[in-house]
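User: Hello, can you help with two protein structures?

Assistant: Certainly.
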Amino acid sequence: QVQLVESGGGLVQAGGSLRLSCARSGRTFSSYAVGWFRQAPGKERQFAAAITWSGGLTYYADSVKGRFTISRDNGKNTVYLQMNSLKPEYTAVYYCAAQSAITSRGLVEAGAYDYWGQGTQVTVSS
């Protein structure tokens, strides 16, 4: 019902910046929130940030506060993740995900989301 396509990943030196984009299509009106997760090889997906679509309320993992900023453009049906002061340990595939309705599981659990993009690779070199 909701399709997500990420873009903007690439290779960046430590301390650099990237802006990721997540374009939404399909039944986007049914989405309650959009989140960004990151997954390193052999690791589970880890919450980075989320935003509620209607109200624009933002939430961040403690590990990225002050470094990442999530935002959305309603007219473009796009969510952005601005990443600054990148560290090598942030190397991962970054996914955006849509949550169709509010849930008691909250916004930080990967299993609480209903739709996922295919991911975009972010590599931070030292």
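That covers the first. Now for the second protein you mentioned:
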Amino acid sequence: QVQLVESGGGLVQAGGSLRLSCAASGIIFGSYDMDWYRQAPGNQRELVAAVTSGGSTNYADSVKGRFTISRDNTKKTVYLQMNSLKPEDTAVYYCHAALRRYGYWGQGTQVTVSS
């Protein structure tokens, strides 16, 4: 069975930092593109950052320059380093693993940024 287990969410003041982790099991991790999504109340779930199986990264414009996605294929873990956090970053953050038409989701972790 596939599991994506997230950690690292919490409450932080504006300008602060958090690092989210997502540990995968049940997949050949290195074959999957890994993504971070977020969803705030009343909003659609949006792609925040992605790292492909080949190591290419891309980011939503709203987080570019502040967030960094990385992966450790040995640890089967993807990270999202979030710096210079803003209140508008407040959302539930979800880990996602994708292999072509296959996709798996983590349980979500709450990130709250206070002003």
